[in-house]
Fold this sequence. Notes:
Blueprint: E1 2-5, E2 11-14, E3 21-26, E4 32-38, E5 46-52, E6 55-62, E7 65-70, E8 73-75, E9 82-85, E10 94-100, E11 103-108, E12 113-117, E13 122-126, E14 134-135, H1 160-165
Antiparallel strand pairs: 1-2, 3-4, 3-14, 4-5, 5-6, 6-7, 7-8, 9-10, 10-11, 11-12, 12-13
Amino acid sequence: GDYVRTLDHGQYKADIGTCYHVALADYQSGNAAVYVADHDSIKNHKKVKVLLSEDEVKIAEEGGVLTVYINGAKKNVDEHITKVPLKGFESDDYFKVYKYYAGYVVKSKEHGLYVFFDGKNVFIKPHFTYRGHQTGLCGLFDGNANHDFVGADGTEYHDAEHFAHSYAIQDGSCTH
């Protein structure tokens, strides 16, 4: 299993399998979300998908190296910041993707979201405006770790397995 530290500093162990799970979703605006899953074929590795309004960034290991896809296109991203104009936003609004140590950062000021991913670990830092307006494996971000196990259906779970399962995105080709 994997250890998950919630935004309210709770911690639990969960087996998420190869289905994407909602790690964080802004349910107030619906404009930002982070999904995480076990890699299909590499033990102890993950894959991550970051949605920023109409844009999607996917990062997963391919051939022994982390690979970045932005809106379905494979991108060569290095230490230099890659600025990507946000679809449906003003022309000077963009998000950034760049290599940072052994991983990649996806950062959007407009969405108030910072995500670091190194192939095994995902670190998500939302802006404080997400407080009380987000849901997912990272908890409610309401200042109370006792409320972290509220599932996608609004049910308060008492065990990590059922809680994590409530955030699984079933697509028929994945396992829990």
